[in-house]
Amino acid sequence: MPKSPGMSSCCLSGRVQEGRPQGTEIEIGGLNTYVAEPQDGSKAKTVIIPDAFGWELPNTRLLADEYAKAGFAAYIPDVHQNDSLPIELLQSIEPPRHVARSMGVAEKAAATAKTGATLGPWLLKHREAVSKPLIDGFVNAVRLIPGTNKVGVIGFCWGGRYAILAAHGSSEPGKGVDAAYALHPSLVAIPADFDPVTKPLSLALGEKDSYLGQKEIGQIQEVMGKKRDLEHEIRVYEDQVHGDEKDKKAMDDAAQQGIEWFNKHLS
């Protein structure tokens, strides 16, 4: 049976970042979309960022702005159609590690129960049979935008798996993505989600991710290692857990990892 690590409550840890997103909001392929464009307006290199917390999360919009500064057209589609996980969960359900260490057993148990009650129904509603066609359709709609050349997908946690699925490629010419980047993906099936990968794939994984541990990382490395003709990379970040904000340098390095990957494969 394939191994399928779950979606950790620490996917919900962290805080809303400060800063004012600079992009615009439009509709693409029937979905509300945040758009950040480079100064020259080029769409030759395009990235799409599906996220469990949705198209309005400041953190994701600021990331899109960073990609725009690096020369990419960046899109965040509302693939949950106004039903993304609420932003409040970033802080209320599972606090960052330095806060969690001060919590008692009862507090942690209550947080875990609340996480399960929230995530379970949401994950069922936005299961693969629902979400993947929306993401694939959005990718193909973006490809029709004049000036668009190569397209990549970036995904975190829930979105990380969909970045991997996007890297399976498309059997139809002119559709699908050219490369993908997944950060601490959750809910992945090993080897089932990795065997069909045909597009360049970069992975950023945490050394201490309890839901994608050393065993699972080794299994992924083994599967991807057999793809000798496919360019891929797996970077394991030392002392990093799933989706944690402990180390700003690791976060910055992971962002740079994606920019370098897409500069190489979308140029």
Automatic annotation (TrEMBL):
<protein>
    <submittedName>
        <fullName>Uncharacterized protein</fullName>
    </submittedName>
</protein>
